[in-house]
């Protein structure tokens, strides 16, 4: 019996075009920059500084030049050309190599930072200027992370320059990453204040509302520490529900969050890789909400322990004569396990390492407790929705292709149904990619939020007649 697999592979109707010489030149600079950084990791002390900064200069120049040449020369717009034909964006060899390199970097960063010393030491001067202390692995990581957001943010600005919403949104994540996640924490350390990230809130930064962290901030930060505690509590428990009511979860996930910043800039080219199947959606529900429930439970138990409601041996490692394991109480052990498996392995190693294979929002979609919290508010209490005009939909699939959260947007658009999903981060790319103006991001009234427009229903009836 003849099977499908017995037929020879058919060539593409439009073969992948050869890379232009100018593009190769810019990409060569990127490759030379990465090579210089690789040389830095094994270079002697006298050469590692020049090699490091040469690598950063080549990498930055090549990325900005390539972005300008690739997206800034032709007409603006969302182009899906050959995404599933290129090795780098179709889970080919280049994608696998990229994923392995990213995963390896995170593993070394978290557990063997001594192998990154040659990359850390060239940053001592910058770290001393900003933080008044030598560089460490986290300063290296923060610098690389911020540089990636800025460089690939420039790429996104070129690519989506025709869309005011995308320009503002991209500029916003670049601003918050540079100012609130890199510069401000460093300046706080320079002033001998507690390091604090004003753009991260509980439950994403889960320990910010733990009793031990609150006590540390108030004790070491004094008046500023009291403000930090107040800021974290108000933003987590008051401002988040209010802002989500008016704007949906996009106010944070697509405009502020550092995880979202990297996904929306460096991960933009991998949007189409997100799994749109119902099985993936089931796994999303099975993972993200239990993670949120776990951190809520741990936070509540810690506060009950601090209030003396629970036995001290269960919540504190400072109780004497009580059963502890390696000096850690059971509840502290649970928080450490969470930090290891969810905070490190899931959000870092898997979350970023899986970009080239599963899309850029794996962490946001399957693991982030903040996304789960915001998603529940968005789905049940928010005014935000994406309205659709089914009568204009031509079923091109552009909207589903760019959805990084695994939502099959086309299915909603074809039926003229508003999109109200807990997963949606409001990036707006589905609307930007639509050639017919079918999709619109709205903060409309709650009434009729789940209903299709009567005009669309009437149009559908006329088509049927």
Automatic annotation (TrEMBL):
Q: State the GO CC annotations.
A: plasma membrane
InterPro entries in alphabetical order: 4Fe4S_Fe-S-bd (IPR017896), 4Fe4S_Fe_S_CS (IPR017900), Electron_Trans/Redox (IPR051684)
Keyword Electron transport: yes or no?
yes
Q: Does the keyword 4Fe-4S apply?
A: yes
Stored Gene3D superfamilies: 3.30.70.20
Where does the record place the 4Fe-4S ferredoxin-type domain? 384-412, 416-444
Which keywords label this protein? 4Fe-4S, Electron transport, Iron, Iron-sulfur, Membrane, Metal-binding, Transmembrane, Transmembrane helix, Transport
Where do transmembrane segments lie in this chain?
26-45, 51-69, 90-112, 138-158, 170-191, 223-247, 287-314, 337-357
Question: What superkingdom does the record give?
Answer: Bacteria
- Gene Ontology molecular function: 4 iron, 4 sulfur cluster binding; metal ion binding
Descriptive protein name: 4Fe-4S binding protein
Q: Give the organism, scientific name.
A: Hymenobacter lutimineralis
* Taxonomic classification: Bacteria, Pseudomonadati, Bacteroidota, Cytophagia, Cytophagales
């Amino acid at each position: 019996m003849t099977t499908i697999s017995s037929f020879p592979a058919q060539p593409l109707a439009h073969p992948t075009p050869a890379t232009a010489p100018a593009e190769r030149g810019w990409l060569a600079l990127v490759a030379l920059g990465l090579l210089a950084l690789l040389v830095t990791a094994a270079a002697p002390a006298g050469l590692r500084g020049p090699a490091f900064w040469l690598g950063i200069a080549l990498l930055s120049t090549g990325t900005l030049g390539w972005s300008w040449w690739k997206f800034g020369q032709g007409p603006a717009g969302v182009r899906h050309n050959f995404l599933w034909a290129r090795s780098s964006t179709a889970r080919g060899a280049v994608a696998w190599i990229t994923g392995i390199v990213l995963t390896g970097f995170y593993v070394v960063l978290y557990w063997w930072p001594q192998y990154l010393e040659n990359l850390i030491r060239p940053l001592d001067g910058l770290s001393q200027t900003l933080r008044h202390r030598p560089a460490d692995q986290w300063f290296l990581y923060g610098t690389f992370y911020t540089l990636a957001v800025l460089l690939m943010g420039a790429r996104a600005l070129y690519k989506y320059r025709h869309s005011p919403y995308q320009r503002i949104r991209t500029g916003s994540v670049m601003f918050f990453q540079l100012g609130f996640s890199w510069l401000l924490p460093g300046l706080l350390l320079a002033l001998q204040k507690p390091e604090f990230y004003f753009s991260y809130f509980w439950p994403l930064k889960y320990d910010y509302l733990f009793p031990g962290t609150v006590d540390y901030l108030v004790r070491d930060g004094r008046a500023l520490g009291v403000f930090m505690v107040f800021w974290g509590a108000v933003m987590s428990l008051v401002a988040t529900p209010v802002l989500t009511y008016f704007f949906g979860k996009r106010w944070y996930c697509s405009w502020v969050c550092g995880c979202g910043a990297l996904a929306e800039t460096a991960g933009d080219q991998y949007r189409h890789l997100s799994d749109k199947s119902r099985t993936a959606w089931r796994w999303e529900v099975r993972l993200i909400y239990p993670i949120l429930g776990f951190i809520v439970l741990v936070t509540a138990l810690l506060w009950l322990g601090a209030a003396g409601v629970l036995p001290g041996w269960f919540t504190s490692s400072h109780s004497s004569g009580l059963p502890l394991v390696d000096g850690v109480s059971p509840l502290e052990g649970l928080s450490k396990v969470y930090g290891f498996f969810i905070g490190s392995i899931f959000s870092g190693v898997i979350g970023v390492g899986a970009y080239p294979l599963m899309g850029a929002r794996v962490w946001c979609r399957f693991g982030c407790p903040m996304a789960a919290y915001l998603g529940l508010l968005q789905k049940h209490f928010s005014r935000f929705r994406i309205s659709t005009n089914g009568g204009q939909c031509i079923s091109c699939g552009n909207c589903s292709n760019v959805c990084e959260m695994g939502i099959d947007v086309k299915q909603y658009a074809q039926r003229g149904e508003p999109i109200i999903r807990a997963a949606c981060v409001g990036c707006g790319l589905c609307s930007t990619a639509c050639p017919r103006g079918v999709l619109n991001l709205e903060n409309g009234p709650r009434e009729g939020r789940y209903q299709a427009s009567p005009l669309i229903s009437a149009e559908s009836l006329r088509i049927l007649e």
